[in-house]
């Protein structure tokens, strides 16, 4: 297994990663968000890619998801853990909860979302019934439990376009649709990973109650505070995962 971690908001770097080199990669789809960071975490050689760029400069709809996944594939990656900060919709999804979702609903639009765009004259469809790798999900849940960190095994991640947060009515609709979590970067990343044949799972951190799910409006200060505390837990889980 060759593991890559895609870091989301609040995880622009991984403490404990002994970085050996940075690799600037170009792909047929353009540049990934940042150079690939190669290093050792625990017992594992891993790669790290900050999804929003090194200085957190790329909003969710401007991330080149195709270049990110293609760069990891080119570098020989087989497994991807995607770390994501999300809003919590259903009751259990409280701030600082860690969740390993098992389903996705895609509400994004206008993103370059496939490697199979038909330009080569081929029409290719991939199965996406279960959008995440069961084996990697299992490892993430096991790593959290091993680190004595509560984790919710399963949940539906609804991916919105952003960068604005949602209205209360949009969140109510997403809840009726069956979403437990809301984020802005889960798609098309997961689908591209599937198209590329990568084992892919998400480790989500709830950083706020979604719009309309708590008193008043969503507070960015609250998000920032929960991000810091939540990513601390994520680092521990990743450390154990790499040592499993
Ligand atoms: N909505 C969408 N994306 C998010 C949220 C949210 O409430 N919180 C963190 N990422």
UniProtKB/TrEMBL annotation:
The record marks 166, 220 as: Important for substrate specificity. It comes from Methylomarinovum caldicuralii. Pfam families: PNP_UDP_1. Phosphate binds at residues 9, 51-52, 185. Homotrimer. Substrate binds at residues 184, 208-210. This is Probable S-methyl-5'-thioinosine phosphorylase. Although this enzyme belongs to the family of MTA phosphorylases based on sequence homology, it has been shown that conserved amino acid substitutions in the substrate binding pocket convert the substrate specificity of this enzyme from 6-aminopurines to 6-oxopurines. PANTHER family: S-METHYL-5'-THIOADENOSINE PHOSPHORYLASE (PTHR42679:SF2). The lineage of its organism: Bacteria, Pseudomonadati, Pseudomonadota, Gammaproteobacteria, Methylococcales. One of its GO terms (cellular component) is cytosol. GO terms for molecular function: S-methyl-5-thioadenosine phosphorylase activity. CDD domains: MTAP_SsMTAPII_like_MTIP. Keywords: Glycosyltransferase, Purine salvage, Transferase. Residues 2-238 form the Nucleoside phosphorylase domain. Its EC number is 2.4.2.44.
């Amino acid at each position: 297994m060759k593991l890559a971690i895609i870091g989301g908001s609040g995880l622009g770097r991984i403490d404990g990663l002994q970085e050996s080199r940075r690799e600037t990669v170009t792909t047929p789809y353009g540049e990934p968000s940042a150079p690939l960071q190669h290093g050792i975490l625990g017992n594992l050689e891993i790669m790290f890619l900050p999804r929003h760029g090194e200085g957190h400069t790329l909003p969710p709809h401007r991330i080149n998801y195709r270049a990110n996944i293609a760069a990891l594939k080119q570098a020989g990656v087989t497994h991807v853990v995607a770390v994501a900060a999300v809003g919590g919709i259903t009751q259990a999804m409280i701030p600082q909860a860690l969740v390993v979702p098992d389903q996705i609903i895609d509400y994004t639009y206008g993103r370059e979302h496939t490697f199979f765009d038909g330009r080569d004259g081929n029409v290719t469809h991939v199965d996406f019934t279960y959008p995440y790798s069961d084996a990697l999900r299992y490892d993430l849940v096991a790593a959290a439990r091993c680190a004595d960190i509560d984790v919710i095994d399963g949940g539906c991640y609804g991916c919105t376009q952003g960068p604005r947060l949602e209205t209360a009515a949009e969140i109510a609709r997403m809840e009726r649709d069956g979403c437990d979590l809301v984020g802005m970067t889960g798609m098309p990343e997961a689908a591209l990973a599937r198209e590329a044949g990568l084992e892919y799972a998400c480790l989500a951190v709830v950083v706020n109650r979604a719009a309309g799910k708590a008193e008043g409006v969503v507070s960015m200060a609250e998000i920032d505070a929960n991000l810091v505390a939540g990513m601390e837990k994520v680092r521990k889980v990743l450390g154990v995962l790499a040592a499993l």
